[in-house]
Amino acid sequence: MRAPGFWHEPAGLLSSILSPLGALYAAGTARRLASGARESVGVPVICIGNINAGGTGKTPTAIAVAQKVAARGVVVHAVTRGYGGALEGPVRVDERGHSAREVGDEALLLAAFLPTWVAKDRVAGAKAAVAAGAQCLILDDGFQNPGLAHDLSVVVVDAWRGFGNGRVIPAGPLREPVDVGLSRADLLLSIGPAPAQTRFEKAWGDRLAVPHMRGALAPLPTGLPLDGLPVLAFAGIGHPEKFFQTLRDMGANLLATHALADHQPLSDALMTRLLREAGQRGAQVVTTEKDAVRLAPEFRQQVMTVPVRLEAEDWTPLERELDRIMARL
């Protein structure tokens, strides 16, 4: 499902009508988080989470943080719920043997960079990873999950969208109020280009009582020049327009864009239709890494993938936190 448009507009009549339901949702989150002591598994746990529902850039952030940890000579594994996948776990993801239907697209993407475990029960997944030799865990999502103790919590937010209208589901895009969520965070990372960062800080800067990092998702070379290339682009991520703008910035000639729902299955019928349209327009079909792992094998060779990596203005706040939590190893 796509987020309602009013979530990212100034609070109006509809969000006001739904605010009592938002208060109930927030109360439910608070009760769940207060339900008992979180369990420790004996190694540092770094939670990459968000306050918003939907995509904010958690997976690229998890990959970047894992690489920072691995550069210290620490064996790091990821634990994720496997959103969209059928397997309960704990199961270690085999990027060649598992499908997105089994483990979810985010888990497959993570598994290309570090050992990754899918587990609906995060504690069980963490214990399985530690038993397999993990010295540090990256918890992809799970900021509102009460089971596993966190040694470092990084909240990620899309700088363009910020915290939307500032209200809780269904009145707005938030899983919990901003101030409540940030009170448990160690770092806040806003992701977006300079204009987006300026917009975010103007809207929310006076409420950020937590160290704030700024980053952006930078495309990697694809091997096929995009400058002037006729392109039909599709994306089933939290904010597809970000990807389409990245392609424009790379010089692509976007003849058509298709914004899909986050994690939307890429059925044979859908892909056949998109490839037919691209053929009629003389365009190359292009998508994101996260979408590409959901493609059936027969379509992968026909679709170009543009990978992105997180770049931060200054990694110092994260490095300081890693120094703190790694001191006990």
UniProtKB/TrEMBL annotation:
EC main group: transferase
E.C. number, please? 2.7.1.130
What is its pathway? Glycolipid biosynthesis; lipid IV(A) biosynthesis; lipid IV(A) from (3R)-3-hydroxytetradecanoyl-[acyl-carrier-protein] and UDP-N-acetyl-alpha-D-glucosamine: step 6/6
Residues reported in the UniProt entry to bind ATP: 52-59
Q: Which GO terms describe its molecular function?
A: ATP binding; lipid-A 4'-kinase activity
Cited Pfam families: LpxK (PF02606)
Question: Which Gene Ontology terms of cellular component type are present?
Answer: plasma membrane
Swiss-Prot/TrEMBL keywords: ATP-binding, Kinase, Lipid A biosynthesis, Lipid biosynthesis, Lipid metabolism, Nucleotide-binding, Transferase
Q: Catalysed reaction(s)? A: a lipid A disaccharide + ATP = a lipid IVA + ADP + H(+)
A single Gene Ontology biological process assigned to it is: lipopolysaccharide core region biosynthetic process
PANTHER family in alphabetical order: TETRAACYLDISACCHARIDE 4'-KINASE, TETRAACYLDISACCHARIDE 4'-KINASE, MITOCHONDRIAL-RELATED
Family, per the entry?
Answer: Belongs to the LpxK family.
Which NCBIfam families did the record assign?
Answer: lpxK
What does the UniProt record say this protein does?
Answer: Transfers the gamma-phosphate of ATP to the 4'-position of a tetraacyldisaccharide 1-phosphate intermediate (termed DS-1-P) to form tetraacyldisaccharide 1,4'-bis-phosphate (lipid IVA).
State what protein this is by name: Tetraacyldisaccharide 4'-kinase
Q: Which organism is it from?
A: Gymnodinialimonas ceratoperidinii
